[in-house]
Amino acid sequence: MEPLTVTVARGGVVEAVHRVHAVAVRDGEVVAAAGDPELVAYLRSSAKPIQALPLVEAYGDLTDAEVAIAAASHKAEPPQIEAVRTLLARAGATEDELENGEQEGRPPGRIHHNCSGKHAGMLAVCRASGWPLEGYRLPDHPLQRRIADDLGAVVLATAIDGCGVPTFATTLRDAAGLLVRTHPRIRAAMEARPELVGGEASTDTALMRALPGWIAKGGAEGLFCAAGPDGLGVALKCVDGNSRAHPPALAAFLGGLGLELPPQLARVPVLNSRGEEVGEIA
Q1: pLDDT digit string (tens) for 267-278?
Q2: Which of 70, 142, 152, 173 has the largest CB neighbor count within 10 A?
Q3: What is the 3-state secondary structure (H, E, C) of the chain?
Q4: Residue 130 has what pLDDT?
Q5: How far, in Å, CA of 21 to CA of 192, rounded?
Q6: What pLDDT, on a 0 to 100 scale, did the predictor assign at position 154?
Q7: What is the per-residue pLDDT across 226-251, written as a single tens digit (0 to 9) for each?
Q8: What CATH number is associated with residue 190?
Q9: The dihedral of CA 25, 205, 151, 113: what is its sign?
Q10: Phi-psi sector, 201: left (phi>0), alpha (psi -120 to 50), beta
Q11: Phi, psi of 64 (to 5 degrees)
């Protein structure tokens, strides 16, 4: 089957076309696909719910906010930054000890990077485990070796993510099964606080709000992973890396599986700088 096609149109003229590979799995078996289930891609931020596993195993008294922000790619919204600060306090660490750097287009300070929750969680794990805080992001640090073990056989290659920690490549089929393995505590926190996982206008937050019992996490360069309460896992990869194709692609693919998403995901308006609708992504 061919990949999904998402078009961006303005005034009746198609200005851009995105091709999206998608796969759904259950118990490791492909149950639906559009495009190539064996396409290889880096997990990027879609791996965050797995990267948070050492955190929930290190502490038994974490709040939903602490767990959700550790699995988040946040937008630096005030509740999200507050949750990061809570994790830093648990770690006995400061913002200066975050090793994710600053992010272009965000307010100054490392805490405003969209991965700062993950990094604060990693510092907290190191504090609880007696591991060095400095260099916690490096591949040979005990924490990163532990996370690589948690991902297990799905890893085909490793590289360094945009925030400085290792990232792992898998097939799209294996990526679809990734969030199915999410620890129940992490899953519960993501369901309880979806607004922390992404934020307003984030597709993963919108999907979790639209489909109770589902969890979702987007990743850089057009990857998106999700998992339902019944063991169904889904992964999408936009070939050109543009995540704006995710909402309509998800609506089409999940619709074929009998899961209806809101109309605002199936058709995303294109707005100009005046807030006027001038086109659509569909």
Answers
A1: 999 999 999 999
A2: 70
A3: CCCEEEEEEECCEEEEEEEEEEEEEECCEEEEEECCCCCEEECHHHHHHHHCHHHHHHCCCCCHHHHHHHCCCCCCCHHHHHHHHHHHHHHCCCHHHCCCCCCCCCCCCHHHCCCHHHHHHHHHHHHHHCCCCCCCCCCCCHHHHHHHHHHHHHCCEEEECCCCCEEEEEEHHHHHCCHHHCCHHHHHHHHHCHHHHCCCCCHHHHHHHHCCCCEEEEECCCEEEEECCCCEEEEEEECCCCHHHHHHHHHHHHHCCCCCCCHHHHCEEEECCCCCEEEEEC
A4: 98
A5: 29
A6: 79
A7: 999 999 999 999 999 999 999 999 99
A8: 3.40.710
A9: positive
A10: left
A11: -60, -40
Give the number of other Cβ atoms within 10 Å of residue 260's Cβ: 12
Residues spanned by the domain of 187: 4-281
> In the block, which residue shows the tokens 């805080």?
133
Q: How many domains, the chain?
A: 1
Return all residues near 38 (Cβ < 8 A) that are at least 6 apart.
171, 172, 173
Per-residue pLDDT reduced to its tens digit, 70-108: 999 999 999 999 999 999 999 999 999 999 999 999 999
